[in-house]
């Protein structure tokens, strides 16, 4: 069992940083880079996750501002994706990986796999729905990514993405303005945390009962354009946040080029209206997500095997070509975790610009033979006791647990972080192997050169928490509490 070092107050943090980093009211100087990487970063990320404020917020700020000083920086993938439309690169599909738990260690494994392949096209993402059951707000998730990059001596951009920043259909029906305000607030929180890639998902309110494709996409387009405008208003100077749209909800009918044309025609008009309202030209999307036959999380059969997934790769290729015609990087494939690995090269052959992956990593983690049997029993008992009401008619225990396991990440977060280093090492080795295989099959090996050419460091000033200055001046500071989490159950 690993003993986590959680500081009780800022003076304890200052003592830990003494001789390694010099803290000022609004600045940071790293005086011992080797010590920062070898030991301080480990304690900082633990406190960024588990400490109360103000220690938590100061630890997150240190990681955010230290990363660029040590060669890793939060970045937008917009310019790279847009270059795909002009043929600057092809047959390279970015893995966008939803890391639901033990995020620091898992992201480290991904960085190790990428560095061994000379790959820099990869994103870490978290969906709006995942924040609740994983108990990870944007500030925590981004801090884990920056800490992992520092620890692994990563040199280059760190792409952190808000996945499925989705308009909840039930909440939208009950209170449209309230639901849209919640999405805008989440976007603001994420960008402030260092997320420079945001996927807006209003596909939930595409109305397939309408007689024409344009009529079906009207609300989706208007909301996506409005959220794009909000992002352009708040993005840091010098950063063009990568914005993704979505034309068809994953798990429903397959998208078509005609759907894309209808959406993009409306989106161009709606973005023009937003440009006139704000009095400035607005940059639009970098990509568009489509439905081609996958299902979030996959479908498990009674014998424990996965139902075959029939991805229409020709549709995906046609949609990417059509997206290039609008100056976008290409089409995005969601729910790809359960696609057989031998087919992954077909994503890059179809020039999908990005695929989203989550469930496979969760399965590797919780089904790993190194995971303590007692811990897995505790998890299963918890799920049966607290989520049994979600069990669908006819499901056996295996099917129920497969769908329910995502709800274990938050309640068992502390126990997972406290697993002994040997156990964590064995699980991470398996994940690193999977990351390496995915990156190889998706064609992003040897992508470092094109990324370094297209994505540059932008110096973004990040104000320090007010509590830091007060503590340095010796003023009393009121304690804080744990973060709260909005609970959502849809999406991957």
- Given helix and strand content, the structural type is alpha/beta
What level of helicity do the residues show? 40-55%
Number of strands: 11
* Principal-axis shape: globular
Secondary structure tally, helices: 20
What's this entry about, in short?
This protein has helices spanning 10-17, 33-50, 55-69, 78-85, 103-116, 128-134, 138-151, 169-174, 176-193, 213-234, 257-278, 313-325, 345-349, 359-366, 373-387, 397-404, 413-417, 421-441, 448-454, 466-472, and strands spanning 21-24, 27-30, 72-74, 94-98, 123-127, 156-166, 197-201, 242-246, 287-290, 331-333, 354-357.
What does this structure look like?
The protein is of the alpha/beta class. It has 2 domains: 74 residues, no CATH class; 333 residues, TIM Barrel (Alpha-Beta Barrel), CATH 3.20.20. The strands form 2 sheets. It has an 8-stranded parallel β-barrel, surrounded by 7 helices. A two-stranded antiparallel sheet has the order 1-2. Helix 7 runs parallel beside helix 9.
List the helices and strands and how they pair.
Elements lengths: L9 H8 L3 E4 L2 E4 L2 H18 L4 H15 L2 E3 L3 H8 L8 E5 L4 H14 L6 E5 H7 L3 H14 L4 E11 L2 H6 L1 H18 L3 E5 L11 H22 L7 E5 L10 H22 L8 E4 L22 H13 L5 E3 L11 H5 L4 E4 L1 H8 L6 H15 L9 H8 L8 H5 L3 H21 L6 H7 L11 H7 L20
Parallel strand pairs: 3-6, 4-5, 4-11, 5-6, 6-7, 7-8, 8-9, 9-10, 10-11
Antiparallel strand pairs: 1-2
